[in-house]
Write a structure and sequence with these properties.
This protein is 86% helix and 0% strand. By secondary structure, the protein is mainly alpha-helical. The longest helix is centred in the last third of the chain and has 48 residues. It is rod-shaped.
Amino acid sequence: MNLNEYPTAIAKLQAEVFDLDQLIDQTCTTTKQIEAEIDSAIAFDAALRNDAQRKAKRQQLLDEHPNYWEQQEILSQYRSKRESCFIQLCLRRNEFSVLKLEKRESIARLELQANS
């Protein structure tokens, strides 16, 4: 990759990380909404008399919910993809920094030779 291509590649990776962050936030919100609905149902269930019963019922309802575990899996996939993308972003930034330093060193050598 040429020096002048790095800013665009870095910006593209930053945008990907941002998009994944938004997807992660949306998925977290969805899972929290599911949990809130279940917690509300449990709070008003007079048949549940103690915390142990409420916790067991909560887990049962989460296990039975059609979308909860699917959302958890999607969340896990987004987080993995985000981490991978972030690693690539850091790599590109570091490569860019090294390439800039190498160019500076090359210019300094040329100036040193010209002054000798």
